[in-house]
Amino acid sequence: MSNSLEAWLEKDTFTSNVSRGLISGLLGGIAGTVVKSAIEKVLPVRKPNTRSAQLKMVDDLSVKLTGDRISSSNQELAEQLVNIPFGASLGATYGYAKRDKLETNIFEGAAYGATTWIGTHETSLPLLGLKESPKEIPLNIQINELIAHVAFGVTTEIVRGLVAKKLRD
């Protein structure tokens, strides 16, 4: 890291705290997304033969732009083209909210992950028609989604805390 950037991040001003919070949260969100995606490979998070909300969005965009659907060999990549930026932006938002806190609190991370799950899978995605109503989804699948999102939040918080401390020191 350059000396001027190090000096900037070591300051205890509003703008340096914001920068540190955004950077640490962004990196935490990326790490959290990787962990969440790994868990989703092990625990089923949707009914068999059901496309994810991310794939539906990218597939619709692909049809509008090219006239073709996403090929089955590219579906996993297409999902991550939505997951990673979304997780990174959620992490950056979280890092901004915790910009003045260097300590790590996994309970806050778990709460953030659970809140993210409620805000996406239980409300906005069904309202947008990208996912079934929670009433139509088996409980075990909902629990698996919640576990993956809590792991996202905890990972985001751990990485955010480590990076924020490293940038401060």
UniProtKB/TrEMBL annotation:
InterPro entries: DUF1440. It comes from the Bacteria. This is Putative membrane protein.
